[in-house]
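Is this the right way to post structure tokens for a design question? Let me know if I should format differently. Anyway, here goes:
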């Protein structure tokens, strides 16, 4: 059993393990898809195609690898510029850069003391966005899910989100997310892990079966 306090102790290697697990699952999928799939619009990121989302992901990781954090980095404007910079690249070049970023960013994130850990979680969520768009299995799940849930718990606490007790269908022990309960009792979630990830990342949950009491869906969003 993992104690509640164990989630507050940072494992510096965990973000890198999450990226490597997703790299090994996502990259073969991408390389097997026809070119037309990369032009599909992504529901989770309106205005971006699959290719543009992947370009964003690879650009973010390469900024981490190369320690390029100029003022305004990761703003919407900065993200749009990064995508535009790759407009002339082939899809294969974008995927190759993404593979390099997922391979090399982990040690840099590990050495950053925690401030970059959320990037690994965000990249993993974006990989789920891509799977969802392509109709591929494993969106917001797969081999990286245990690592992602650990990051989800710790980051939700650091951001002092609404306290939430999550009883997951596919995880033995309940998770306790968010700030320490005060005057407000913890909200309760009943459902699967993938839907919890969707709620905590502001992704659509249409058709998902879950129960949420004591909080609104938007209160769980870590990226909102």
């Amino acid at each position: 059993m993992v104690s509640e306090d164990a989630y507050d102790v940072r494992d510096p290697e965990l973000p890198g393990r999450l990226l490597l697990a997703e790299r090994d699952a996502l990259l073969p999928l991408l390389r097997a898809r026809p070119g037309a799939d990369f032009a599909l619009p992504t529901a989770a990121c309106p205005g971006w195609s699959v290719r543009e989302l992947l370009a964003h992901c690879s650009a973010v990781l390469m900024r981490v690898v190369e320690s390029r954090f100029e003022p305004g980095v990761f703003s919407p404007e900065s993200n749009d510029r990064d995508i535009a910079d790759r407009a002339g690249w082939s899809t294969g070049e974008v995927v190759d850069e993404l593979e390099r970023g997922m391979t090399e960013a982990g040690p840099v994130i590990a050495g950053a003391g925690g401030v970059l850990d959320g990037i690994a979680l965000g990249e993993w969520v974006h990989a789920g966005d891509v799977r969802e768009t392509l109709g591929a299995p494993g969106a917001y799940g797969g081999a990286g899910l245990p690592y992602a849930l650990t990051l989800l718990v710790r980051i939700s606490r650091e951001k002092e989100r609404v306290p939430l007790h999550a009883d997951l269908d596919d995880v033995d022990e309940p998770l306790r997310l968010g700030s320490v309960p005060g005057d407000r009792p913890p909200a309760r979630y009943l459902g699967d892990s993938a839907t919890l990830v969707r709620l905590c990342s502001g992704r659509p949950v249409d058709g998902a079966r879950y129960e949420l009491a004591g909080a609104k869906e938007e209160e769980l969003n870590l990226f909102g």
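Format looks fine. Someone answered above. Worth noting: Helices lie at 14-31, 50-66, 76-85, 91-110, 117-134, 145-158, 193-200. Strands lie at 164-168, 175-177, 187-191, 211-213.
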